[in-house]
Design a protein that fits this description.
alpha/beta, eight-stranded parallel β-barrel
């Protein structure tokens, strides 16, 4: 597997129903410097998810940025995505790996120190610490925010890439990176910004300036 840059992941906003707006924001994020895109669709039907995945893959190829699919391994396979991100109640990790192969990226959501210690997390290519802070983007099935202290605790026992998501913006990004995260994943910090391109550039600059490994 080629080395993946986890510095700035844009998680697409499925509340944006208009495709023109959806893909305009995605392309602005790509132009602005995101290093990874996660296509997340929690409410649409499979046909709509597939259609968006096809176009998202095309855009990511143009900008040479990996595309991962949230939850849906069938969609990832159908569009030849670069991988998937799964949660604790999604497809078992070992099954996802068998279906996708060794070259695919598989990320796993982790909400507690106990989950980070388990074999699935240790075998994942990266973990997504979710949520790091409280967020309005996802309001159901959401664990208690881990906060900076939780991030530090997991960093002590986890030696693979860690990406934080939940309530992240330009005001707290530096604190997250300086306390051990390899990157951030954002939704509304880009999708709800007045200028998504500018917002993306600002976040990327903060991550790269703060991180010692970029």
């Amino acid at each position: 597997m080629p080395k993946i840059d986890y510095a700035l992941m844009y998680v697409t906003d499925d509340s944006i129903r208009d495709d023109n707006s959806f893909f305009a924001i995605l392309e602005a994020a790509l132009k602005g410097g995101v290093t990874l895109v996660q296509l997340r669709e929690k409410t649409c039907d499979t046909a709509t998810f597939y259609k968006r995945a096809v176009h998202a893959k095309e855009l990511c190829v143009v900008y040479n940025i990996p595309l991962i699919i949230n939850d849906r391994i069938d969609i990832a396979l159908a569009v030849n995505a670069d991988g998937v991100h799964i949660g604790q109640t999604d497809m078992p990790f070992n099954v996802a790996r068998r279906l996708l192969g060794k070259s695919s990226i598989i990320g796993l959501s982790v909400s507690t120190l106990e989950q980070a210690i388990k074999d699935n997390a240790q075998a994942a290519d990266y973990i997504g610490i979710s949520p790091i802070f409280s967020t309005d983007t996802k309001t159901t099935d959401l664990a208690k925010p881990l906060g900076i202290s939780g991030l530090r605790s997991i960093r002590e026992i986890y030696n693979k890439p860690m990406v934080c998501i939940g309530g992240i913006n330009k005001n707290n990004t530096a604190e997250i990176i300086s306390n051990g995260a390899d990157g951030i994943a954002v939704v509304s910090a880009i999708s709800k910004a007045v200028e998504p391109l500018t917002a993306t550039k600002e976040l990327k600059q903060i991550v790269c300036k703060t991180g010692t490994h970029y």
